Each structure stands twice: as C-alpha cells, then as structure tokens.
C-alpha cells in the first residue's frame, strides 16, 4: 500500500481541518512548498494536493499548486479541488501533475466523467466524499440521496486512475478509519481505491492494507506527530 501525505491548501497555507469544518482548523503551515519539499526529502514519492478554497468557491490557490508541482521535488502528485472542466484538467496536467482528482462534477455528472476519463485514461481520480455512506459534494456542503456503493458500481468500465474515498465523518479526528466502508468499496470497485479520513496510527494503516486498499491519504496524523513518517516509510514505501 502507498501512503500519501495530504497537502491541503487554504489562503495560501497548508492546513488541516477537523471533520471538514473550516471553523476547526488545527494545523496551519505558511509555506506549502517547503512542506512538499520536506515530504520529498523524507522519502515520500506521492502527494495529495487539494485546493480547499477552489473546492468551496472561496478562491484559488492555483499559483501555489503550480509551485508545488514545478518545484516540490516529489515524483508523483495528484491534485484536486474545484476541478470542473477540461481546461482545469489540462492546466494541472500541464504543470506536471500525475493525476487530477475530480469530485463534485464527476459525481453529479457521470456522462462528463466518462468523457473525461476516456480523454485522459489513467490520469483521472474520482473523489467520492462520504458521510455515513451518503455521498457529499460541493465542499462537503451538499448531501446526495445515494449510497456510495451504488456510485462505485456505476463506475465499472470507466478508465479511471483510481477512486479516492474520504470518510468525511472521520476526517482529521485520528480516531480510526471507517473500515467497513473501505472494505465494501474495495470489494465493489474495479479500479484502485485510495482511502482517506481518520487514520491515526500505524495499526489503522495496516488494517487498510489488509483490506486491499491501494493507497491511504494521511494528513492530521502526520502533521501532529501521531504517526512517525519514518515508521511509515519503513513499512510502506512502495505501491
């Protein structure tokens, strides 16, 4: 399993939020490029970069994203947050991203997602943000009347690079992942599954690995020292 540090961008800084709530920001680092370079120096090969302001319509950190992609020194970077058209995908890939993460429009407009994945096979990751098995969109503010497993089954045959499932109800709390959710998603998916939300210990990572998860995005636990990045790299440094 691949462990992927999260670099969440807000107002030009790298932040970590609890439960996806903007009012509950626990970590703020003012130099995201330095953060990316530090993850690279330690030995992480992939980063998960999200423009939270773009995702929620509050603004844009596009210049920061470009700086990380061009100068962060990381082999692979997947980028998301407010990506809702092909121009944005072209721009991010042009900066050097390995994959582009699409959320709201990809979930709400399956025809567009299919066309996008066909144009960029193996370069699009669909983000399915989930709160108690229900899919949420638009920066976690809108809940759809559908179960995430139904969504996953509808994706069969779409040439995605992966499916990123975030357990929003566990996000940033370090109280453990939603293992039944992740196990069911892995069983239902025909593309690699990346888990996010709630990882707080090495045992959480091992549990995800045991359930066939391809990758795990980790934020709060790495930034607060709850998980030692060197211990992660000793055990998980390859796909």
TrEMBL record:
Catalyzed chemical reaction(s): 1-(5-phospho-beta-D-ribosyl)-5-[(5-phospho-beta-D-ribosylamino)methylideneamino]imidazole-4-carboxamide = 5-[(5-phospho-1-deoxy-D-ribulos-1-ylimino)methylamino]-1-(5-phospho-beta-D-ribosyl)imidazole-4-carboxamide
Keywords: Amino-acid biosynthesis, Cytoplasm, Histidine biosynthesis, Isomerase
Active site positions: 8, 129
Enzyme class per UniProt: isomerase
Pfam families (alphabetical): His_biosynth (PF00977)
This enzyme's EC code(s): 5.3.1.16
Pathway linked to the protein: Amino-acid biosynthesis; L-histidine biosynthesis; L-histidine from 5-phospho-alpha-D-ribose 1-diphosphate: step 4/9
Keyword Oxidoreductase: no
UniProt key word Cytoplasm: yes
Gene Ontology terms: biological process: L-histidine biosynthetic process; L-tryptophan biosynthetic process
GO CC annotations on file: cytoplasm
Any one Gene Ontology molecular-function term assigned to this protein's record: 1-(5-phosphoribosyl)-5-[(5-phosphoribosylamino)methylideneamino]imidazole-4-carboxamide isomerase activity
Location within or outside the cell: Cytoplasm
Chief subcellular location: cytoplasm
Coiled-coil intervals: none
Record-stated family: Belongs to the HisA/HisF family.
Name of the protein this chain belongs to: 1-(5-phosphoribosyl)-5-[(5-phosphoribosylamino)methylideneamino] imidazole-4-carboxamide isomerase
Organism of provenance: Gemmatirosa kalamazoonensis
Source taxonomy: Bacteria, Pseudomonadati, Gemmatimonadota, Gemmatimonadia, Gemmatimonadales
């Amino acid at each position: 399993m691949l462990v992927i540090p999260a670099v969440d961008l807000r107002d030009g800084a790298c932040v970590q939020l609890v439960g996806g709530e903007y009012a509950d920001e626990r970590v703020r680092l003012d130099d995201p490029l330095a953060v990316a370079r530090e993850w690279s120096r330690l030995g992480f090969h992939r980063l998960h970069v999200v423009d939270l302001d773009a995702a929620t319509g509050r603004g844009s950190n596009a210049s920061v994203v470009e700086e990380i992609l061009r100068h962060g020194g990381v082999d692979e970077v997947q980028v998301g947050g407010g990506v809702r058209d092909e121009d944005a995908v072209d721009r991010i890939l042009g900066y050097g991203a390995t994959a582009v993460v699409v959320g709201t429009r990809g979930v709400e407009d399956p025809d567009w997602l299919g066309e996008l994945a066909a144009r960029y096979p193996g370069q699009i990751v669909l983000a399915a943000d989930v709160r108690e098995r229900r899919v949420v969109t638009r920066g976690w503010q809108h809940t759809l009347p559908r179960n995430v497993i139904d969504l996953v089954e509808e994706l069969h045959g779409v040439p995605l690079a992966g499916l990123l499932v975030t357990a929003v109800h566990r996000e940033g709390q370090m109280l453990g992942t939603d293992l039944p959710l992740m196990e069911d998603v892995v069983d239902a998916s025909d593309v690699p599954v990346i888990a996010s939300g709630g990882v707080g210990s090495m045992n959480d990572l091992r549990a995800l690995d045991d359930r066939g998860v391809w990758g795990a995005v980790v934020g709060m636990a790495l930034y607060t020292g709850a998980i030692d990045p060197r211990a992660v790299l000793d055990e998980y440094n390859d796909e």
